[in-house]
Amino acid sequence: MGKEARGSMRFAVRCGAMLGGVALALPCGQAVAGEEGGDSATHILDQIVVTGTKTPHTLQDTPVETLVLGREEIDRTNAQNIEGILKSIPGVSVSAHDDTFGTYTWNAKMRGLSINDGYALILVDGQRVMGSGQSGGMGEYGIGLNQIPVEMVERIEVVKGPGSALYGSDAMAGVINIITRRTPKEPVVGAGAAYGWYTVRERLKNGVVEEPADKNRHQSQAYAYFGDRPLEKLGYLLQYNRESAQDNGASRIDSERDSVLLKVDVDPTKQLRLFAKGEASDYDKEADRKEQSYRLSAGADWQPGAAHFLSLKGYTYNWDFDHGYLDNTYGHKFGDIAYRQMEGQYTWTANQTHALTSGAEFQRQSIDFRIDNADNSTIRVDREIDIASFYLQDELTLPGGKMTLVPGVRYDDHSVFGEEVNPKLSAMYRFSAATTLRASVGRAFKSPTIRQLYYDAPYGHGSYYVQANPDLKPETALGYSAGIEHWLPEKNAMLSVGYFRNEVKELVTREDTGTLYNGLPLQIYRNVEEATTQGVELMGRIWAMGGGSLAFAYTYTDSENRENGKALPYTPVHQVSLTPAYDLADYGVGMSATISQSSRQYTDTANTAQIDTHTVVDAKIYKQLRKNAKLSLEADNVFDSDKGDEGNFRTGRTLMLKFDLTL
């Protein structure tokens, strides 16, 4: 039996065993709230969010700056992956990425700090992810946003500002919580398929074609799900997705991913909720990339009375990967990453103005990894890192009801770096029912990656080699933010404006050693830099009579590497987007568009190479064939704007035809 066949069989066996285990074990749960409904201002304000404080709040009452993208808003986008959903969020920059399954996505930023390098924490259903995820790029090092298919997403909560007081390492710029579909309250069946085409731009060097591209590519998607609550106290949801696309490189290289999700919840009593989730995916990129991931979570929520809430949960995640081949410039990389987490949380609600939350968490991160370099050298890493944590948070509304304070602190005992203490203070002040001020200040930290610490020999990275450094120290950051939000009296329009600043110290970077290794320059990781990002975010939205809406977002970001005075790579100074949408309900027709512009951004630390200012227009039109059937035509980059780094292949215009059916 060949390697590929063995891999597919191994995936099938693990997937079946895991999902069977979920169905039999049952004991887990996660709080995902928010009822389905119209995409109106009232519906948005009444949504329940949990990520910012680990306690439920309506969106209008949460004391921590939070943005939510619900399923209806996601359906209005043309997004083929998670990054495509986030491009209209102020402070999130994904302008240099390609919204096509299977392409690399290592340029995402939040408030000027790299998401993929671990400066913003990525969660799926409130639980950490590791590795790039399928179609994420950067192997075991990068942390990819595109962990699950778009069709599995119920909503995304984006919490901005330092989050280490609750979540520990990596939450410097904020937290992105990708929440999967819920178990339904009544029988539901859905399915859909999409097929599309896109063009690929050639790779250039100084404006001259360095490597041409076979321009026409295709991509497709299909999904199906069903769920029910066969018993009053038992519900389930099962979903399958398949994605396929041709790579945006010099030639057509197929990428495919199969994903399955099973969720089960049981409510034995009104006070006790048990639930479980299993998720698995199998990714295969023709010739040089195979990945498989498995997530299994279990837990229980118990609320014996109005004043007490206890949550216990466990989580395991495995990501197996096989990248490249021996003669590849980057070598042949293969191995697995594992993540284990256990957490207990207790919330005491004294009254409507005071709630105290405490928790304990244990994390174990491990990697068993090997690189066979083109020079016949071998790198082997087999390491574990343990982190034991305790956190405490107080939510206190002062007399008069206008001011809410949320102090919090987290203690982490890291098996490599020892103790870390990260405090945070958030505040919310209501000038009126329509006007709210939110502000926060906090400390955050980021542990060096296993690659940066423990690779026992230099590894090839294109035109140079890189050496790990076991003496690295954690990076730390101090973050500030303040913003004001105002709603018109009829709640048919809102406007918000905010300021943020992040000061990062002990920034890990690659530094040239001045020596050669195998005839190429040798670099080493060192804590040598400080960086600052600051800026202004502006957002507005209008809901018009008759089904129309208009959203506007603008971000100004000033970034600086304090060591050399240069701007941080892939951080545009100006970003602006305009998103009109209109539904003709009587005719079953709807349309939407997003016009976005990003100013010049540099692609290197020396600020010698850049992506020019560019404007991209996406458009979508749909026809409701019946109450439960919809046909959509989507066009990304309608005017074929050159929006990426000319040194890489990048997508141009994309067309997709989609059909969705629900029963």
TrEMBL record:
It is a multi-pass membrane protein. It comes from the Bacteria. Belongs to the TonB-dependent receptor family. The keyword Signal applies. Residues 1-33 form the signal peptide. Keywords: Cell outer membrane, Membrane, Receptor, Signal, TonB box, Transmembrane, Transmembrane beta strand, Transport. This is TonB-dependent receptor. Residues 59-175 form the TonB-dependent receptor plug domain. It is found in: Cell outer membrane. GO terms for molecular function: siderophore uptake transmembrane transporter activity. It holds the Pfam family Plug. It comes from Thiovibrio frasassiensis. Residues 280-638 form the TonB-dependent receptor-like beta-barrel domain. One of its GO terms (cellular component) is cell outer membrane. One of its GO terms (biological process) is siderophore transmembrane transport.
